[in-house]
Amino acid sequence: MRRYTIAVNNQPFEIEVKELTTNQFRVVVDDRAFEVALVAEEDVPEAVIRPEILPLPAPAARPAPAPAAPLPLPQSASAGPAQVKAPMPGVIIAVDVAAGQRVHRGQQLLVLEAMKMKNPIRATHDTVVAQVLAQPGQSVNFDDLLLVFEE
Fold first, then answer.
1. Of 78, 93, 94, 111, which alpha carbon lies 20 to 30 A from 144's?
2. Alpha carbon 69 to chain centroid distance?
3. CA angle at 115 for the pair 113 and 116, rounded to the nearest 5°
4. pTM confidence score
C-alpha cells in the first residue's frame, strides 16, 4: 500500500492506495475506504492513466477525532416519556436494545446509516427502554420516532 497527500479544492487529504488488479484499487481517504476502478483506457488521456505520482513523506500523526456527541434525550416531566427520534434520514443498521432493558449513559442503542456513514445513537443517561419502534433494514426520515423510554 502506498501513502500520498492529495489536495481537492485546496484541502489536503491523506490517502492510501492498494492495487487490487490492474485497473481496480482500494483507496483509503482519511480512514474511509473506497474500491475504485479506472475507466477504459481509450476514454482517458495518457496523463491520467499513467500519472507521475511521487509519494510524499508520511504526514505527522493527527489526533483522533472526538467521538460524536450522543443524541440528546428530552427530559421534561410534563412532556411524558423521553424519546429518541431519527436525527437524519437513513437506514437502521442495528438495534442493540429491547423493551424492558435497562440502559446506561453512553451505551449504544442503535446504529443509523446515512450517506454511507454508520452513526451510533447512544443513551445520554441511565434509563429503561419502554418501546423499540425501529427495526434493522428499516428506512427512516428525519424526526421519526425510534425508541421510547420509561419516565
1. 78
2. 13
3. 65
4. 0.48
Domain boundaries, the chain: 2-49, 81-149
Joined together, the cell numbers standing for residue 65 give 477525532
Q: How far is residue 116 from each of residues 100, 110, 113, measured CA to CA in Å?
A: 31, 16, 6
By the 8 A CB rule, do 56 and 5 touch?
yes
H or E element, residue 48:
helix 46-49
- What's the CATH code, domain 81-149? 2.40.50.100
pLDDT digits (tens, 9 = 90+) for 11-53: 777 788 888 777 777 888 767 787 877 765 555 555 444 444 4
The one-letter code for the residue type at 26 is R
